[in-house]
């Protein structure tokens, strides 16, 4: 149970801080760099805090990769993704709940020149940090999300096998860089839970397009597992299975 709670809290931190940096900067000049850095730091901190307990996945695509590599049991995989999706959904709920006080802040009232805006109007206009893409670009978006998720999970899988590497920092920065690169195209999900949670609240096109992220992210994680196993020596593979 401790592992599942750790995955729940870690995913909550990642989604709350990451998407919160998008939502609560809507009234100012948003920067992909600061948003990417928010996701990067949130992930690194979560891994440092909860990695020793659960392995620090906080991403169903990572958990799928670890299960395929036999570094996570399939029973734990089910528990992990349930905890991750729940943590992400509650994080989006928390961000949604913070919109009302945000609208009363001096930053927003100044940007609106004293005019009022309801929570519903804000969410319709600025969103909740959901990932999305232009209509008609489904297969292009799927290809991009598949590739960047594969690259992210591959690096995670390899780095976590190296005992003397500062994996949390590198993994966090790698996530942030990938998000910055593809944010203008797909929003930079790389994580099915992170994609689904805000889409459930925003709905509309974001929810209609969610299948792209679910397929691409899970498929990218699965391919990363296969490639990681290809790179492993027999001795390393035996050691990984013994530790699982």
TrEMBL record:
Keywords: Cell membrane, Membrane, Transmembrane, Transmembrane helix, Transport. The chain crosses the membrane at residues 7-27, 33-53, 74-96, 139-161, 168-190, 210-232. It is found in: Cell membrane. One of its GO terms (molecular function) is water channel activity. It comes from the Bacteria. It is a multi-pass membrane protein. InterPro entries: Aquaporin-like (IPR023271), Aquaporin_transptr (IPR034294), MIP (IPR000425), MIP_CS (IPR022357). GO terms for cellular component: plasma membrane. It holds the Pfam family MIP. Belongs to the MIP/aquaporin (TC 1.A.8) family. This is MIP family channel protein.
């Amino acid at each position: 149970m401790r592992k599942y709670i750790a995955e729940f809290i870690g995913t909550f931190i990642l989604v709350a801080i990451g998407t919160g940096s998008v939502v609560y900067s809507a009234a100012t000049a948003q920067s992909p760099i600061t948003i990417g850095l928010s996701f990067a730091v949130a992930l690194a901190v979560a891994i440092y805090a909860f990695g020793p307990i659960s392995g620090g996945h906080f991403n169903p695509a990572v958990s799928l990769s670890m299960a395929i590599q036999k570094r996570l049991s399939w029973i734990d995989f089910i528990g992990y993704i349930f905890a991750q999706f729940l943590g992400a959904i509650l994080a989006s709920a928390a961000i949604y709940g913070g919109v009302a006080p945000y609208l009363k802040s001096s930053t927003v009232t100044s940007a609106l020149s004293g005019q009022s805006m309801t929570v519903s109007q804000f969410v319709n206009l600025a969103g909740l940090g959901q990932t999305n893409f232009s209509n008609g670009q489904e297969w292009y978006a799927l290809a991009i999300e598949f590739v960047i998720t594969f690259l992210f999970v591959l690096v995670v899988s390899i780095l976590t096998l190296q005992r003397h590497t500062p994996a949390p920092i590198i993994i966090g920065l790698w996530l942030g860089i990938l998000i910055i690169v593809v944010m203008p195209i797909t929003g930079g999900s790389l994580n099915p839970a992170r994609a689904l949670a805000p889409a459930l609240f925003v709905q509309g096109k974001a929810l209609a397009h969610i299948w792209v992220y679910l397929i691409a992210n899970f498929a990218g994680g699965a391919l990363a597992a296969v490639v990681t196993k290809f790179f492993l020596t027999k001795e390393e593979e035996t050691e990984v299975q013994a530790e699982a």
